[in-house]
Amino acid sequence: MRRLVVILFLPALLGCQDPPQSAPVGRRLMERSHPGMGAEAHLSVWTNDEPAAVAAFDEVFAELDRLESLMSVWRPGSDIVRLNDAAGRESVTVSPEVMDALRAAREVGDWTNGGFDVTFAALADVWKFDHDQDDRVPSPEEIRTRVPLVDYRALELDAGAGTAYLRRRGMRAHLGGIGKGFAVDRASAILRSHGFHDFMVQFGGDLYVSGSRGDRPWRLGIRDPRGPADRSFAAIELRDSSFSTSGDYERFFMHNGRRYHHIIDPRTGEPAKGCRSVTIAARTATIADALSTGVFVLGPADGMALIERLPDVEGVIVTDDNRVLVSSGLKDRLEILAPPTDQP
User: Fold this and answer.
1) Do 92 and 78 meet the contact criterion of CB atoms below 8 Å apart?
2) Confidence class of residue 225 from pLDDT cuts 50, 70 and 90?
């Protein structure tokens, strides 16, 4: 999917072509990858202690596997599968990690007025972007019958009891829009607990960078939504920040000249309009992951207005007419390498 040698290729984020500068004497960049949650986690650490790095990598990957077993909609007996199976009938006990992820999802749902909705999965088998995609546009009636089942406000959480409940039969939660970000944050905490300060954790389109890459900040790029997978249109240097991109180019098909993609507007049950990609920088990958989707659904004007209101959040939006919108906190830090490719 991508490799990290001198150029970092990521599905939604692209490291720019600058090679790492000189690192402190004795240190080198160690890297490992591991599949999970339908993507691949990639860890990069500057260190002079290879055994310690290997031990930390092993602990991270074990934790990612554990989180997937709790959060997956495909794993029988996972917390999310049990929650969905009990919809409209009873509450279920969930792990502290799933409770934390669901609470964060509810919070971002409030910020985006439902633009990000963790119960979007009621529409998943209508569009089938996750599996067995057949490039078929569902009928208005198919969509109309499912939209009432998408409502994050009908997800009840009792943190004291450790339980979650979906009020209506047929409702389905899905952590696909926040789970990888949550996993990135957990991985970052583990690396810090092992004493590492200069590292990157990347999981699909979500990442967190800590400290430096050699003697300079981590230099990251934003993929051109209509260009080749290895082309970025903008670059930024970051330390101690998350970075997440949602785009309409990741899973899509064309039908009668229209692009149908996997980022569904919960209000209409159809692919969201107005954006080609949204990149969010925030303190945590959990928030950046969910916000990149929520802002995409809100659209350029409302989405950028939300970014400007939230503390410690910045963003870059490529609109569906190929304009690039940059939040005030990034205007002097983002380097536009070339205009994004202009095509449908």
Assistant:
1) no
2) very high
Query: Please, what is the Cα angle at 36 between 30 and 39, to 5 degrees?
Result: 85
Is residue 131 classed exposed, middle or buried when 0-12, 13-18 and 19+ CB atoms within 10 A define those classes? Answer: exposed
Model-wide pTM > 0.85: yes
Exposure of 16 in the CB half-sphere (CA atoms within 13 A): 19
Write 65-70 long-range contacts (CB < 8 A, 24+).
65/36, 67/37, 67/97, 67/179, 67/182, 67/183, 67/186, 68/36, 68/37, 68/183, 70/94, 70/95, 70/97, 70/98
Q: Which residue is associated with the tokens 């990609």?
A: 277
Has residue 170 got a pLDDT over 50?
A: yes
Mean of pLDDT values over 8-34: 60
- Beta bridge partners, 29, equal 46
Q: What does DSSP say about strands 324-326 and 258-261: parallel, antiparallel, or unpaired?
A: unpaired
Residue owning tokens 């939660």: 173
Q: Are 180 and 37 in contact (CB under 8 A)?
A: yes
β-pairing, 232-238 vs 241-247, is unpaired
C-alpha span between 107 and 181 (Å, rounded) = 15
Place of tokens 């939230």: 310
- Cα(315)–Cα(232) distance, integer angstroms: 16
> What is the CA angle 330-189-14, rounded to 5?
40
214: nearest Cα among 43, 51, 29, 49: 29
Relative orientation angle of helices 179-193 and 96-111, to the nearest 10 degrees: 120
Residue 235 in tokens: 């670059």
At 124, list the tokens: 């998943």
pLDDT tens string 106-125: 999 999 999 999 999 999 88
C-beta of residue 79 within 8 angstroms of C-beta of residue 278: no
The H or E element containing residue 32 is: strand 28-36
